[in-house]
Design a protein that fits this description.
This protein is mainly alpha-helical and about 120 residues long. Helix 1 crosses helix 2. The chain has two domains: about 55 residues, 434 Repressor (Amino-terminal Domain) (Orthogonal Bundle); about 45 residues, no CATH class.
Length: about 120
């Protein structure tokens, strides 16, 4: 007896419609979701790649991503830094809205001090 899309969805915290989208290829499956599915289905993650065509395997094995210039530009962008992400997460963990607002105003004041007149 097979596992229904509904039961599979329940096991990994998705609706059966989301499972259908994965099955049809309408949505991409992230690595962590694929790991979850492999555990529920009791198969190794490699199971999902067994029937992958050779041309796709070769294409996906080629390095992809940013060239050196794009990487340098990305590293200069403060919004892509880990420090920024950690700061934002810490900020939103502050439970008191008035305290959070005061910290926000403090940071803006400190930043203005470094701006040229």
């Amino acid at each position: 007896m097979g596992l229904s899309q509904e039961k599979l969805g329940e096991a990994v915290g998705l609706t059966f419609q989301q499972i259908q989208k994965y099955e049809r290829g309408a949505n991409r499956i992230g690595a962590s979701r694929m790991f979850d599915l492999s555990k529920v289905l009791d198969v190794p993650v490699s199971f999902f790649f067994d029937d992958m065509p050779e041309d796709v395997k070769k294409r996906d094995a080629e390095p992809a991503g940013f060239d050196e210039q794009q990487q340098v530009e990305l590293e200069k962008d403060p919004l892509t830094r880990r420090e920024t992400l950690e700061l934002v997460r810490a900020y939103y963990r502050i439970g008191s809205t008035p305290v959070r607002k005061r910290i926000f105003e403090l940071v803006k004041s400190l930043a203005r001090m470094n701006e040229p007149d």
